């Protein structure tokens, strides 16, 4: 009987085994490929937007892979309850440590365990680069009022936030984080140089971009960009990048220049 606890996205790999493929435990997966493992109450929401565009093509081509674990299947009792009321009282419900623990034990292999949480460390481009350089990660998508602190502490989860606001769950946040990370993997974008010039890669915001037509609605492409002088173009882009950062993100400017 096939394993129904997880769903795998991406190419299947061939592994030597003394047992028939249909009787093997766990999803089939590629060896030495960056892997995202997602623990969620809504596994059918993945890969979501990650299945489109270049990240989706890379997923189909086996440049990265994704496995989802349905948290509900590790719930307690006949109704597979995953949450309970907060100790000490309060509104909402909290995901149980024992339920989360069973799901993590069944899911985690290599890399950090990340918990998408509004109280977490802000996700940055540097964090995306760090994740992309590793073997992958396990992501817990929270719901309700959060997760029992004991599970977070026991597994050494790193809490990560994509912004100072609250979502109904961690699924969208996980997809944002994965999109930012997967696009940095070798061969995903095709043009590796493009990731070196974009916003946040060097601490500044990216310079303005233009393309044809040369004139549109009375607005023309800056003449320096059509001059053919690569030195002047590079200088113009640097100055524009610095001015945008200084104006729009003084926090980044002060951090970069201090």
Considering the chains and any ligands shown, give keywords for the structure:
Trp Operon Repressor, Chain A; alpha/beta; 8 helices; 10 strands; 6-stranded mixed beta sheet; 258 residues; two-stranded antiparallel ribbon; Alpha/beta knot
* Rg (CA only): 22 Å
CATH superfamily of the largest domain: SPOUT methyltransferase, trefoil knot domain
Largest sheet: 6 strands, mixed
CATH structural architecture of the largest domain = 3-Layer(aba) Sandwich
What is the strand content?
A: 15-25%
Structural class: alpha/beta
| CATH C-level name of the largest domain | Alpha Beta
Taking pLDDT < 50 over at least 5 consecutive residues as the criterion, the unreliable ranges are 13-24
Would you write up a description of this structure?
By secondary structure, this protein is an alpha/beta fold. The chain folds into two domains: 6-182, SPOUT methyltransferase, trefoil knot domain (Alpha/beta knot, 3-Layer(aba) Sandwich), CATH 3.40.1280.10; 198-257, tRNA(m1g37)methyltransferase, domain 2 (Trp Operon Repressor, Chain A), CATH 1.10.1270.20. The protein is built from eight helices and ten strands. The chain has helices spanning 53-60, 97-107, 125-132, 149-154, 171-182, 194-197, 230-248, 250-257, and strands at residues 6-9, 34-40, 64-70, 83-84, 94-95, 113-122, 136-141, 158-161, 215-216, 219-220. The strands form three sheets. The protein has a six-stranded mixed sheet, with helices on both faces. Strands 4-5 form a two-stranded antiparallel sheet. A two-stranded antiparallel ribbon has the order 9-10. Helix 3 crosses helix 5 and helix 7 packs across helix 8. The longest helix has 19 residues, at 230-248.
